[in-house]
Amino acid sequence: MDFDEIQNAWNNDKPKNVVVPHNLEKIQSANTPLDKIKKNLKTEFYYQILSIVFIGTVPLIGNLPPKWTFFYYLLFSLFVAVCVYYLLKLYFFYKRLNNTTLTTKDSLYETYFDIRLNMELYKTFGFALTPFLVLYLLGLSYYSFSKIPGFFDHEFSNGQLVGFFLVVVFGVLFMGISLEWWVHKFYGKFAKEIRKVIDELKEE
Question: How far is CA 194 from the centre of its chain?
Fold first, then answer.
């Protein structure tokens, strides 16, 4: 057998059409919602940092008195510590997603549950910031009332106490509802698309 015959035999043995397994195509279809989650997470990470910087400049913009500025930055330092803790966790989550390759059912399962876990972490992050939101609202209300002459010369009326109570309730409810909506819009609906792929794979 000469070289040409060997080469022809080799070419005849090569598969002419390589068929990609249907499961692999379906698994990799989850890359689209995964890319959207990564994009939203990256964008939000930058906005979170910009928001922290902006909140830190509020006393300078609002020309708060030194006494108020001291207490503001005392509260702000606690706020930053909480933000740094959670933002680092979300950053490492983003890095894990970047290194994810959806080639098997196991990798798809792991990625989906990692997304669900970090969605709950995001909600926890929001609720951890809720007390700061309430304190900022109360502080702003107190500062506004302090400008009214003789406001603190008398005791708080029932109406004023109810007003402060409503500020607290509104702040907590607003934060809770906003978090649920935000997480669903930017992460939850894409996680559902990945879950749909997982369910389809179970049926096969």
Answer: 17
CB of 88 within 8 A of CB of 96? no
Task: Please say if the pLDDT value at position 80 is more than 80.
Answer: yes
Decide: residue 64, CB within 10 A, 0-12 exposed, 13-18 middle, 19+ buried.
Answer: middle
First to last CA, the chain: 48
- Per the document, the length of the chain is 204
Sign of CA dihedral 65, 69, 70, 75: positive
**CA geometry: angle at 15 spanning 10 and 21, to 5°?**
150
Q: d(Cα 159, Cα 92) in Å, to the nearest integer?
A: 47
pLDDT, tens only, 159-191? 777 877 887 788 788 888 999 999 999 999 989
Contact 195, 108 (CB under 8 A): no
- Which of the 8 DSSP states describes residue 153? G
Joined tokens for residue 150: 């003789």
Question: To 5 degrees, how large is the angle CA 120–CA 121–CA 126?
Answer: 95
Query: Among residues 84, 52, 55, 85, which one has the least CA distance to residue 72?
Result: 55
pTM of the model: 0.75
Residue 195, both tokens: 């879950």
User: How many whole angstroms separate alpha carbon 35 and alpha carbon 116?
Assistant: 15
Residue 49 CB contacts under 8 Å (≥ 6 apart), including other chains: 87
